[in-house]
Design brief:
By secondary structure, the protein is mostly helical. It is built from 11 helices and no strands. The protein has helices at 12-58, 64-80, 85-103, 108-132, 137-149, 155-167, 172-184, 191-207, 209-218, 222-228, 233-241.
């Protein structure tokens, strides 16, 4: 009779090692599961962003079917990746479009109620995004723009405006977005916020004088800029060309 190989005795170290291997495998499987979910969610997120960009370029409101399709992409992504601040920020933009659609409807009473519902949903997505990423200037800019669009010029608007300045001071895209918002709401800003915007705007004018002049002119603030900014030769020349 052939003796069978003897099994090595199960020592405490052997059991511990096997336990660690099992734990590591479980963690890896979970990580792969999460990565897979986020990968699928990112595809839907991409589709939402592509549609929002297309709507912005066209300058036209989407029809109900188109919007419902995009809302479906967003809802699917949200179920898979609800803790993604970028996705939540995208949700805020999506429901801003729905607000615009509701504001364009014929029945005034229904329009008012629906518009309010969608404006609050948009803001909630922005707020949730900022809870997860509180120093992200683009989300602060988005909620500033949304509050102005919804005519909600309250303390939250003032805070959002200030935070956009704070976290995106030298960011080129923030400058492009905040300049028109600042001139549009200049007389509505609180004293300290208005002063901060003015100092920031003068700093921006040193590097981007044409953009400052264009935004000021669009919103009827050209005279204020031309009179108020002294010592900036480029601004001076541009103002002179405009007759100021």
């Amino acid at each position: 009779m052939i003796d069978s190989p003897q099994q090595a005795p199960r020592t405490g170290n052997g059991i511990l090692k096997r336990g660690l291997v099992i734990i590591i495998l479980m963690v890896l499987c979970f990580a792969l599961f999460i990565a897979g979910k986020r990968g699928v969610a990112s595809i839907s997120e991409f589709l939402v962003q592509e549609h929002l960009d297309a709507w912005a370029v066209s300058g036209k409101l989407p029809d109900d079917q188109n919007w419902n399709d995009v809302e479906g992409y967003f809802s699917f992504a949200e179920k898979l990746d609800s803790g993604n601040p970028g996705l939540l920020q995208l949700g805020g933009k999506l429901y801003e479009w729905r607000y615009l659609m509701a504001s364009n409807e014929i029945a005034e009473t229904a329009q008012s109620q629906a518009a309010h519902t969608f404006s609050e949903k948009s803001l909630d997505y922005y707020r949730n995004s900022l809870q997860l990423r509180p120093t992200w200037p683009y989300a602060w800019l988005d909620i500033t723009s949304a509050k102005l669009r919804f005519n909600q010029l309250d303390e939250e608007f003032q805070q959002a405006f200030s935070q956009t300045l704070r976290f995106g001071y030298w960011d080129t895209d923030i400058q492009k977005g905040l300049l028109p918002l600042g001139f549009q709401s200049l007389t509505l800003l609180e004293k300290d916020t208005r002063k901060a915007f003015w100092e920031w705007m003068k700093a921006v004018a040193e590097k981007r004088p044409k953009e400052v002049i264009a935004a000021a002119e669009t919103h009827g603030k050209l005279v204020i800029v031309c009179v108020g900014i002294q010592g900036n030769e480029k601004i001076g020349r541009l103002c002179k060309k405009k007759g100021h």
